[in-house]
Amino acid sequence: MTTYNIAILAGDGIGPEVMKEAVKIMALVDKRNENINFELNTALFGATAYFATGKSFPEETKTVCDNADTILKGTIGLSHEDSKKIPLDEQPERGALLPLRRRYNTYANFRPIYLPKSLSHFSPLKGSIIGDGIDIMLIRELVGGLYFGHKETGVDKNGKRFVKEVLEYDEDQIRQIIKVAFEVSMKRKKIMHNIHKSNVLESSMLWNEIVEEEKQNYPEVEVINILVDAAATYLCLKPTMFDVMVMENMFGDILSDQGGGILGSLGLMPSACKGSEKSYYEPSHGSAPDIAGQGIANPYSMIGSVALMLEMSFGMEKEAKNIWIAMQRVFENGFSTLDLSKQGEANLVSTAEFGDLVCAELVKLPL
Ligand code: NAD
Question: Which fold has domain 118-271?
Fold first, then answer.
């Protein structure tokens, strides 16, 4: 019997609601497989942690995460207005999320943008644009660039307020994420879209140089260079042209949310954040304060993050695949949460009901 120690950080807003469903699925996977045991250790994280302890990433939580094999994170963050109740340094992103990423150097963020043809009605795009379905692996550098660079604010000698934020990458940082993207491309269609902004940013020029250098090691992969602004348009007009996309931190933050948009909801965006030693898994979306506490959030991205964890951290590929199949079947049977339902449609389910339906499909699938 192998025991996996998993840190559970439910977080803020809809985090605890969707995490409850993820835990439900994990309990079922655990029950059905006598060779494994999931040991779940919950800890406070984000605004919830700040209000309880004065720190958004408290020492106890760091210990739980340090001791865990891997980390499953819900969502963090407050509404724009409520954020002002917390000092800047302890606000959930600055005080918890970025330090979590830095602590475990989770440099590779995998954000699948996936919608099979059978579910194309969820998308705001026309069926003719979606074709046989959308299947993109967006790979985002997660611990460098503008989000992690030096920051300064103040008043200049003319009495004007100023702000300065530094976008920094060294070649090793770029190379490690580019290598990941080439490796993933080799396992998929061997086409990699390199997203950059080298017509303006020197960071993109270095980025592209490294892509060129690494390409020598992967001659079978076709590299297509595309400016980030054009990529945003193509994601809407021709999403099926993409297979693997690789990009720096901020570009990935923005384009992956657009990915949620073309699928029909951010609730369809799970993610994996891989470090060399430890990884964590989280929905790509935020804490959705506008719908928190109503039991209507879509738990697909949270449950999908469990599937990514099983596959990428524990090598449980079959169990992971079963979770994807079970969720797809729930949708194909006509059920959906509010974010994906069209007006007047039947079979609208709550967060908890969606989790139950996934469990019911899961038990039908052989191990
Ligand atoms: P958001 O992603 O929380 O929500 C954007 C929209 O998508 C909202 O209308 C929301 O209701 C909807 N949505 C998101 N997830 C959903 C789900 N599972 N089911 C149904 N609908 C869903 O973005 P926001 O409102 O701009 O940010 C809210 C907070 O989340 C902010 O504090 C932000 O900083 C934080 N945030 C955290 C993360 C993270 O934890 N990695 C990521 C993004 C934003």
Answer: Isopropylmalate Dehydrogenase (3.40.718)
